[in-house]
Automatic annotation (TrEMBL):
<dbReference type="InterPro" id="IPR004381">
    <property type="entry name" value="Glycerate_kinase"/>
</dbReference>
<dbReference type="InterPro" id="IPR018193">
    <property type="entry name" value="Glyc_kinase_flavodox-like_fold"/>
</dbReference>
<dbReference type="InterPro" id="IPR018197">
    <property type="entry name" value="Glycerate_kinase_RE-like"/>
</dbReference>
<keyword id="KW-0808">Transferase</keyword>
<dbReference type="Pfam" id="PF02595">
    <property type="entry name" value="Gly_kinase"/>
</dbReference>
<protein>
    <submittedName>
        <fullName>Glycerate kinase</fullName>
    </submittedName>
</protein>
<comment type="similarity">
    <text>Belongs to the glycerate kinase type-1 family.</text>
</comment>
<dbReference type="InterPro" id="IPR036129">
    <property type="entry name" value="Glycerate_kinase_sf"/>
</dbReference>
<dbReference type="GO" id="GO:0008887">
    <property type="term" value="F:glycerate kinase activity"/>
</dbReference>
<keyword id="KW-0418">Kinase</keyword>
<dbReference type="GO" id="GO:0031388">
    <property type="term" value="P:organic acid phosphorylation"/>
</dbReference>
Length: 368
């Protein structure tokens, strides 16, 4: 009896990862009804991370927390035992901007701190923060302020939220930070290695995606440089410090967090090696399989672990920009794309579930 592990990431703009896995499973079952199919949707720390854990049987904890502009909104995180998996994008990410309106100077990460505090008060001591998709560039200062840190300007006034306000930061007080922090371990699930500052830093690489103009970026770079002098310049150059608008930096400097590859950490928490036991085939993928995917994205992490276990891996994507040799070098026996079946990208996205079911049937016929 063939055993197939389906471990896709989301197809952004089309289907979440559980939906991708379900569509592939339906197609495979139609051709190979005797196959044992394990659906293990994955993520790399960005959008969809909490959903992936909930699909794996973790408990969803729902609450209300400030979004990136301070407006309260629904939020959630996933828990099992002493571990909480918190996804920044689901609390203060771009999708949480009211009306989709950017606020590059004023957006902050206060809501993330609220969720972390909730998890600490619930007794969780192993806190995993999925970093990605942030709407702000505040160096994690908002997160830390929500956990009890206080920031003042030279006149002793508390700062307003947002990255721009950090330009005036003159004093940082940490005496009243949440007592649960001392007994907790913080791990950052992160798929980028950017430092906080400079040409590869949080502002230069990512701020424009959050609506920042050239003038805004000059201000934000100076603000983060000032913030790093207060919170600990020694962490600014750490790979991953620039993740999520510098939230990585704030967690490194004041929460003493450890940076891990997002997909590697998440596969470890999902006990993926055990799920691979006796598998015949692994199928993974994401919306766009491209050169950026090769730098630690979810499908590559899945492929690496499956190959280590000696199991062949297939890739499924909305589209691919990789050449045949690149696909093979990444560890995939083959790659199936929605655009192979529907060249019109708009139609392939709107009919993703139907097309993925057809791909599931084809790969079952080809490999099972």
């Amino acid at each position: 009896m063939p055993r197939v592990v389906l471990a896709p990431d989301k197809f952004k703009g089309s289907l979440d990862a559980p939906g991708v896995a379900a569509a592939l499973a339906a197609g495979i079952a139609g051709v190979a009804p005797g196959a044992e199919i394990r659906e293990v949707p994955v993520a790399d720390g960005g959008d969809g991370t909490v959903d992936a854990f909930v699909a794996a049987g973790w408990q969803r904890i729902s609450l209300t927390a400030p979004g990136p502009t301070g407006v309260d909104a629904s939020a959630s995180y996933a828990v099992r035992g002493d571990t909480a998996v918190i996804e920044l994008a689901a609390v203060v990410g771009l999708a949480k901007l009211p009306g989709g309106q950017f606020d590059p100077l004023g957006a902050g990460t206060e809501g993330l701190g609220v969720v972390i505090g909730h998890a600490l008060e619930d007794g969780r001591t192993n806190i995993v923060l999925g970093l990605g998709g942030s709407a702000s560039t505040d160096g994690g200062a908002g997160m830390l302020r929500a956990l009890g840190a206080r920031l003042f300007d030279a006149q002793g006034r508390e700062l307003s939220m947002g990255g721009a306000a950090l330009l005036d930061a003159a004093r940082l007080e940490c005496a009243a930070m949440h007592p649960g922090i001392a007994g907790a371990r913080f791990t950052l699930a992160c798929d980028v290695d950017n430092p906080l500052l400079g040409p590869q830093g949080a502002v230069a690489v990512y701020a424009a995606q959050k609506g920042a103009t050239a003038e805004d970026m000059t201000l934000l770079e100076a603000a983060l440089a000032n913030w790093s002098r207060l919170a600990g310049a020694g962490y600014a150059g750490t790979p991953g410090a620039g993740a999520a608008g510098g939230t990585g930096y704030g967690a490194l400097a004041l929460l003493h967090a450890e940076v891990r590859s997002g997909i590697e950490l998440i596969l470890e928490l999902l006990d993926f090696p055990t799920l691979l036991a006796d598998a015949t085939l692994v199928v993974t993928g994401e919306g766009s399989l491209d050169p950026q995917s090769l730098h630690g994205k979810a499908p590559i992490g899945v492929a690496r672990m499956a190959r280590t276990a000696g199991i062949p891996v297939l890739a499924v994507a909305g589209r691919t920009l990789l050449t045949g040799p690149e696909i093979e070098a990444a560890g995939f026996a083959a790659c199936y794309t929605l655009t192979d079946l529907q060249p019109d990208s708009t139609l392939s996205m709107t009919h993703a579930a139907e097309l993925l079911e057809r791909i599931g049937a084809k790969l079952a016929a080809d490999h099972l």
